[in-house]
């Protein structure tokens, strides 16, 4: 092990950044190159979308955090001694983002340029911090239109929005009808929470933000409509999330599907044109739409609903082939009254044509769930880093310059690599592949001069948090949660986190 | 050959319909292939045993993993251990991103068709996750949901390649 250690900086401590680190830690011994890893995080605490994106009733999805914790505790053993240091540097933003958080007075700033000058490898894993929008009038101005990213961040206690007036001063007691635009898994998470908002056993025990849940509990929600631009077969959700909606029947909450395409497909579930996923989806829909006693398979008869479908006052439904074209507010207010949709027609070739006919539906709340959008860092222009629509342009994780040439030592993984697609498992696999490219490049190239240069990176910043700090916060959050009968009670302001650390 | 076969199965991952007809044949051939005499057949001393128990003499069950590079490894294990625990206990490249709680597809394995039917059928939650697995075949299972028992003594499973379907979006 005579080689000089390579210094690796990873920007972002969500699943993509930490899985990239994990693979480097586990595989450094295969190329016999010692490494030092620094993980930069803008929040004082780690885990990104695992902490702030995953639904509170999916705690098992957050188990990846255990892997990351083991990595921080045992990186020497896991790397057979090749990982010399693994540092978490919290409260520190790298490369001023275009949307800076106004809520963290403790934030440090480090220029991406200085990292690229001093580190052998820099990995952009900072995820998607923006929203795809409908771009129709009143979308921003209407007080009852939220993007799913903001809404999810709010109920998950993300520092920037946890106490934001937009949500805390919103009159939840008036919300009966909800519209959700988009039908991906985030849309389904949001739908599930909203229609079952008053079911204590689902949410009371979770790590959902307590103040957010108090607000949500006030809403007498009766219907949630999940609206897609295309038809049933183009639905973006996965079967797990879909099943969870159907299973809400055990709380007296029922579902429906408005789609002639669905009506046709469900008549011949085993048609060869249906793949495995579609067959399972159709069978599930068909069975759950039947009265309990008429279902053919026992797995759809696990829990008898407490009331009949016809007696229920709470419904969710999928509607299709609709594109929102107008947001209508109650006169003289900013409150949502209704949304006007253009009806779409699917052509034989799969393309979509917007027709002239419109429908208008009353809603008290509209959530737009069109996906997370990657944003470039401000320094990208100056550093010649190519950004394409909503992701860092790259080949196999190697970041490209504006002239389409890989920039030595610069990589990207996770959602900022692909523009915001896939679940944690996909992110993990993608991150491993990027880490493999980094290892290949490190093995192939002679020691980068940065390892021997005199340039020093300042990693002792005011108010920066460390992994040990997080372990402390984690312990406190679990204790607080236990006392409240929840699996965790999160700190939702940076101040409260810093106070805990100060008093320790 | 072994390698190429595994790769071919994963490359086709998106095309479940195509797989339905071809995969079992390919996998059957792959899994049934005997190890050539010249090939290194390693019974490995693990670095970490994790929380795996050591089977009592005479009660060992055998399992063979075919790794991504085609290497085969056989272990003596106890009844009741999951395939994920066994793989992780022996440092094979199998992740359980959700900690073995059937909430992801990272411990996907392809089971030798000769043994597949001897495993209790997957529940809905496992099937929901298999929907999302790369390189899905008709004998795919999640390692965290399959427990060793006498009925599957000698089982052979392959770890699928992690092949992404590269699209123009990646470029």
TrEMBL record, chain A:
<dbReference type="InterPro" id="IPR036188">
    <property type="entry name" value="FAD/NAD-bd_sf"/>
</dbReference>
<keyword id="KW-0285">Flavoprotein</keyword>
<comment type="similarity">
    <text>Belongs to the ferredoxin--NADP reductase type 1 family.</text>
</comment>
<feature type="binding site">
    <location>
        <position position="415"/>
    </location>
    <ligand>
        <name>FAD</name>
    </ligand>
</feature>
<dbReference type="InterPro" id="IPR055275">
    <property type="entry name" value="Ferredox_Rdtase"/>
</dbReference>
<feature type="binding site">
    <location>
        <begin position="183"/>
        <end position="186"/>
    </location>
    <ligand>
        <name>NADP(+)</name>
    </ligand>
</feature>
<keyword id="KW-0274">FAD</keyword>
<feature type="binding site">
    <location>
        <position position="49"/>
    </location>
    <ligand>
        <name>FAD</name>
    </ligand>
</feature>
<feature type="binding site">
    <location>
        <position position="422"/>
    </location>
    <ligand>
        <name>NADP(+)</name>
    </ligand>
</feature>
<dbReference type="GO" id="GO:0005739">
    <property type="term" value="C:mitochondrion"/>
</dbReference>
<feature type="binding site">
    <location>
        <position position="16"/>
    </location>
    <ligand>
        <name>FAD</name>
    </ligand>
</feature>
<protein>
    <recommendedName>
        <fullName>NADPH:adrenodoxin oxidoreductase, mitochondrial</fullName>
        <ecNumber>1.18.1.6</ecNumber>
    </recommendedName>
</protein>
<dbReference type="Pfam" id="PF13450">
    <property type="entry name" value="NAD_binding_8"/>
</dbReference>
<keyword id="KW-0496">Mitochondrion</keyword>
<keyword id="KW-0560">Oxidoreductase</keyword>
<dbReference type="GO" id="GO:0016491">
    <property type="term" value="F:oxidoreductase activity"/>
</dbReference>
<feature type="binding site">
    <location>
        <position position="94"/>
    </location>
    <ligand>
        <name>FAD</name>
    </ligand>
</feature>
<dbReference type="InterPro" id="IPR021163">
    <property type="entry name" value="Ferredox_Rdtase_adrenod"/>
</dbReference>
<keyword id="KW-0521">NADP</keyword>
<feature type="binding site">
    <location>
        <begin position="229"/>
        <end position="230"/>
    </location>
    <ligand>
        <name>NADP(+)</name>
    </ligand>
</feature>
<feature type="binding site">
    <location>
        <position position="241"/>
    </location>
    <ligand>
        <name>NADP(+)</name>
    </ligand>
</feature>
<feature type="binding site">
    <location>
        <begin position="422"/>
        <end position="424"/>
    </location>
    <ligand>
        <name>FAD</name>
    </ligand>
</feature>
TrEMBL record, chain B:
<dbReference type="InterPro" id="IPR018298">
    <property type="entry name" value="Adrenodoxin_Fe-S_BS"/>
</dbReference>
<dbReference type="GO" id="GO:0051537">
    <property type="term" value="F:2 iron, 2 sulfur cluster binding"/>
</dbReference>
<dbReference type="GO" id="GO:0005739">
    <property type="term" value="C:mitochondrion"/>
</dbReference>
<dbReference type="InterPro" id="IPR012675">
    <property type="entry name" value="Beta-grasp_dom_sf"/>
</dbReference>
<keyword id="KW-0411">Iron-sulfur</keyword>
<protein>
    <submittedName>
        <fullName>Adrenodoxin</fullName>
    </submittedName>
</protein>
<keyword id="KW-0249">Electron transport</keyword>
<dbReference type="InterPro" id="IPR001041">
    <property type="entry name" value="2Fe-2S_ferredoxin-type"/>
</dbReference>
<keyword id="KW-0813">Transport</keyword>
<comment type="similarity">
    <text>Belongs to the adrenodoxin/putidaredoxin family.</text>
</comment>
<keyword id="KW-0496">Mitochondrion</keyword>
<feature type="domain" description="2Fe-2S ferredoxin-type">
    <location>
        <begin position="61"/>
        <end position="163"/>
    </location>
</feature>
<dbReference type="GO" id="GO:0140647">
    <property type="term" value="P:P450-containing electron transport chain"/>
</dbReference>
<keyword id="KW-0001">2Fe-2S</keyword>
<dbReference type="GO" id="GO:0009055">
    <property type="term" value="F:electron transfer activity"/>
</dbReference>
<dbReference type="Pfam" id="PF00111">
    <property type="entry name" value="Fer2"/>
</dbReference>
<keyword id="KW-0408">Iron</keyword>
<keyword id="KW-0479">Metal-binding</keyword>
<dbReference type="GO" id="GO:0046872">
    <property type="term" value="F:metal ion binding"/>
</dbReference>
<dbReference type="InterPro" id="IPR036010">
    <property type="entry name" value="2Fe-2S_ferredoxin-like_sf"/>
</dbReference>
<dbReference type="InterPro" id="IPR001055">
    <property type="entry name" value="Adrenodoxin-like"/>
</dbReference>
């Amino acid at each position: 092990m005579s080689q000089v250690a390579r210094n690796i900086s990873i920007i972002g401590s969500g699943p993509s950044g930490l899985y990239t680190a994990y693979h480097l830690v586990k595989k450094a011994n295969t190329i016999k190159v010692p490494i030092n890893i620094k993980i930069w995080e803008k929040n004082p605490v780690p885990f990104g979308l695992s902490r702030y994106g995953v639904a509170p009733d999916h705690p098992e999805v957050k188990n990846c955090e255990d892997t990351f914790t083991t990595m921080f505790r045992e990186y020497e053993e896991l790397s057979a001694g090749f990982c010399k240091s693994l540092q978490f540097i919290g409260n520190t933003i790298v490369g001023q983002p275009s949307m800076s958080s106004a809520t963290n007075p403790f934030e440090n700033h480090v220029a991406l340029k200085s990292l690229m000058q001093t580190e052998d490898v820099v990995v952009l894993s900072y995820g998607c911090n923006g929203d795809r929008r409908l771009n129709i009038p009143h979308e921003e101005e209407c007080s009852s239109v939220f993007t799913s990213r903001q809404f999810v961040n709010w109920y998950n206690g993300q520092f920037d929005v946890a106490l934001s007036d937009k949500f805390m001063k919103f009159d939840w007691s008036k919300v009966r009808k909800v519209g959700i635009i988009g039908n991906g898994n985030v849309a389904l998470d949001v739908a599930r929470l909203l229609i079952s908002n008053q079911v204590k056993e689902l949410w009371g025990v979770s790590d959902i933000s307590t103040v957010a849940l108090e607000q949500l509990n006030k809403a007498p929600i009766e219907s949630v409509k999940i609206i897609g631009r295309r038809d049933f077969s183009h639905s973006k959700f996965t079967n797990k999330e879909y099943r969870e909606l159907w299973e809400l029947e055990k709380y007296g909450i029922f579902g429906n599907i408005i789609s002639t395409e669905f009506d046709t497909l469900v008549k011949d579930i085993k048609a060869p044109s249906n793949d495995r996923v579609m067959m399972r989806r159709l069978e599930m829909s068909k069975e759950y739409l039947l009265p309990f006693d008429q279902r053919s398979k026992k797995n759809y008869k696990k829990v008898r609903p407490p009331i009949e479908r016809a007696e229920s006052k709470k419904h969710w439904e999928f509607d299709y082939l609709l594109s929102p074209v107008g947001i209508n507010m109650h006169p003289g207010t900013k409150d949502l009254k209704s949304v006007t949709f253009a009806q779409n027609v699917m052509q034989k070739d799969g393309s979509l044509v917007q027709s002239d006919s419109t429908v208008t539906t009353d809603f008290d709340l509209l959530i737009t769930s069109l996906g997370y959008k990657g944003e470039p860092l401000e320094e990208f222009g100056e550093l010649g880093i190519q950004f394409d629509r909503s992701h860092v342009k790259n080949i196999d994780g190697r970041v490209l310059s504006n002239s389409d040439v890989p920039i030595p030592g610069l990589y990207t993984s996770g959602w900022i690599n692909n523009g915001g697609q896939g679940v944690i498992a996909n992110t993990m696999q993608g991150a491993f592949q990027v880490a493999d490219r980094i290892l290949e490049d490190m093995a192939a190239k002679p020691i980068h001069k940065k390892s021997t240069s005199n340039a020093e990176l300042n990693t002792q910043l005011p108010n920066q948090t460390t992994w040990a700090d997080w372990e402390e916060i984690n312990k406190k959050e679990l204790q607080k949660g236990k006392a409240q009968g929840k699996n965790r009670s999160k700190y939702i302001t940076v101040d409260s986190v810093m106070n805990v650390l100060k008093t320790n | 050959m072994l390698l190429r076969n595994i790769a071919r199965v994963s490359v086709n991952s998106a095309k479940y319909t195509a797989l339905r007809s071809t995969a079992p044949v390919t996998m059957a051939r792959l899994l049934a292939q005997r190890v050539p005499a010249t090939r290194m057949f390693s019974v490995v001393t693990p670095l970490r045993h994790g929380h795996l128990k050591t089977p009592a003499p005479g009660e060992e069950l055998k399992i063979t993993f075919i790794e991504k590079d085609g290497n085969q490894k056989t272990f003596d294990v106890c009844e009741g251990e999951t395939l994920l625990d066994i793989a992780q206990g022996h440092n094979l490249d199998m992740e359980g991103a959700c900690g073995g709680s059937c909430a992801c597809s990272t411990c996907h394995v392809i089971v030798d068709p000769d043994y597949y039917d001897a495993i209790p059928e997957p529940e809905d939650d496992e099937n929901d996750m298999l929907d999302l697995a790369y390189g899905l075949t008709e004998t795919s299972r999640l390692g965290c949901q399959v427990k060793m028992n006498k009925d599957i003594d000698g089982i052979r499973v392959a770890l699928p390649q992690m092949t992404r379907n590269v699209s123009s979006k990646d470029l």
